[in-house]
Amino acid sequence: MEFNTRAHGATWRWPLLLSVVLLNICLPSLVYAYGVILVHLDEFHVPIWVGLSTPTIYILIYNFTQCWFREAADSWGGAVGYRVMATLGLAMVVASLLICAFIPFHLQPLVYGILGGLGSSLISAQVDAVVFDTYDSRLGIIRGVCFAGQAVGQAMFPHIIVALIDAYGYSYSYIVLAGIILQTLPAILLLRVDESIQRPISYSRYSDLAKTYAVFSNEGMDKNFYTNELPLHDLSQKYWKSPDDNLHKEPDFSEDFEYDDDVVATITPPPSPEEKRKNIFGVEILPEIPEESEESECEEEEKDASVNKKRLSVAIKRLSTLGDSFDDCISKQIRRDSQPDGIEHKDYTEVEVTYDNVSPVTDIQREKIFNSFSFRCQSAYASMRRRMWMPSYRIYTIRRRLTFFMYNINDTFIKPLTRSLSCWKFYPSLLLYFARLSLTSVAMVSLSKIASEMHPRIAISDANFLMTLYGFTWICFLLSTPWLAQTPKRNFKYVALAGVVISTLGCFVLAEADNHDSFSIGCVIAGFGYGAVSCCWETAVQDFVGARKWPKLHSPLETISGTLLAVFVVGISFIVDEDRGLQTAMFILAITLSVISFIWLIISICYIYVTKLKSVRIGKRWLF
Asked: Which sequence ranges are marked TM in the entry (predicted)?
């Protein structure tokens, strides 16, 4: 009920939506369209594995930093935080493109991969945070629109990059491309969350912690948030005019009295109903006052006199005790001028050491201790050790930051990794994510280079048209996004399985293609399968591992999948420089995807048996 109300009442915020779509068109397309740059690198006699390693390093850095930047987006976000961090990421991407224009070809994978991966990861974290906080009721539709923007960028940027290289040359085209990417700065400046909208606690990314905090902070009590905790009332707003309902009304002071907000005043309540009574004629009856007799007055006077006598006797005893003590003090005092000259006066007398007193240490004794040889040696050793181990406070702060960094690495990578490796559901999820990354950095990047090896050779303009066809088929799958938004999460695994199977078929076709027609068919099939995998893999994994385990397994999935992708690219780098090497690598990728498809096919069959067939059998057994 609440979800439908929010979905119909929330606004689309069109400027923010257009900025998010523009960022998804421009930034990821630098990796999707890198195959065009790979073809031109081959013309400059640069090894293919060098060009193929650039998107791999990009994705590796992106996955390793996404978990940190996601937490930074949650802690540094706000009216300005999202835009500042996204602007910093955009500066990294633009700087990587500008540096690539002036460095050798062999260094470009490192510069563009590292700086571009860092910048894109930082921007992606801010965009995801803003999208979640703004479009929480339409999250499926908005993600489909973002993927559609990436497909549009995949269709446009190959033509843009080829036009820049033909007009300005290979090196200077990076400068113009950096200027084009810099035009997304106005879109970044629109990344802002509307803080005036009060969102329910259930829509927080940390809903469990948010609900607990709301209980202890007395929030959410009047927003359909049911709990067994009693609400805490502000007693400063207590109202005495109506004793029956004094906790749900605001104070209504008369105009004769003016109260300052900073002054806390005490309000005296009027007489209670027990003290003010009326007879049947409406006349107020004053409370009864007990009568006093003369005997009671005499008894009270006698009691007061006896108490005063006791107090006077106690005071006299105290005065006598003080007088005796003063006499003792006066008698024990000796005048110094009345002493004979022969008696030497000692400033410091020796006191016997007992359990009650200790002999005082004089300044002379303290000076002897400080000037002793042993104390000097101990102080010299302590100062030398302090200079060696703690030379300054700066070294101490560096050590503290290093310790904090090591604990952060432990909490971000090592501890989630050990927890994830003990869960069997982690491994199929890892394979599905690896399938999506390999299709991005190997299959999609290799399209232009494979097109140049066809017989007859496909021109670069035709190859760009086929990559546009790849993005168009991707968009064709995204037309089913409204249907996917209404589909239960448990069914996404079947759509992701279909996407992996179709991608496997597309990779086999591309590996065996030798003419224009077969290559075109492979592009169409691969684009449709990639659209299904990229849109459904995350939701399928979330439902597979469970909502409680997904936050714990998310960062290990990203980091280990990026590492697996790097290992896979290093393995195929030994064969890509040979004749039809990229098609051989595509064949190896197709075999790997077929293994992943078989594993997820078994998982899907098991889920169908558990959720459908087994429940039907149990129902029949109960009926008979």
From this structure: 12-34, 46-64, 84-105, 111-132, 144-165, 171-191, 430-451, 463-485, 492-513, 519-537, 557-576, 582-610
Residue 507 lies in a domain: yes
**pLDDT per 10-residue tile (average), the chain, 624 residues:** 45 85 88 88 86 91 89 73 89 93 88 92 90 81 88 90 90 92 91 65 46 46 44 46 44 43 47 54 59 59 75 76 66 53 48 49 61 75 71 73 85 85 91 93 90 85 87 88 85 92 94 89 91 91 89 90 94 88 92 95 90 61 42
**Measuring CA to CA, which residue among 91, 81, 94, 95 is closest to residue 125?**
81
Is 159 in the same domain as 250? no
Residue 185 to residue 183: CA distance in whole angstroms: 5
* CB proximity list for 432: less than 8 A, separation 6 or greater: 496, 500, 533, 537, 540, 541, 596, 600
Check whether residue 384 and residue 469 sit in a common domain. no
Residues 414 and 446 occupy one common structural domain: no
**Same domain? 125 vs 77:** yes
Q: How many C-alpha atoms does 235 have within 13 Å on its Cβ side?
A: 3
Q: What whole-number distance in Å separates Cα of residue 130 and Cα of residue 139?
A: 11
**What contacts 512, CB < 8 A, 6 or more positions away?**
518, 583, 587
Q: What is the pTM (predicted TM-score) of this model?
A: 0.68
Q: Is residue 470 part of a domain?
A: yes
What CATH number is associated with residue 76? 1.20.1250.20
pLDDT of residue 324: 67
CA 32 to chain centre: 27
Q: Does residue 441 lie within any of the structural domains?
A: yes
Name the residue range of residue 396's domain.
392-422
List phi, psi (to 5°) of 284.
-70, 140
Q: Under DSSP, is residue 195 helix (H, G, I), strand (E, B) or coil?
A: coil
Q: Domain ends where: 285, 310, 325?
A: 285
Asked if residue 16 belongs to a domain, the reply is yes
Query: Residue 445: how many CA atoms within 13 Å on its side-chain side?
Result: 29
CB within 8 A of 220, min separation 6: which ones? Answer: 200, 201, 211, 214
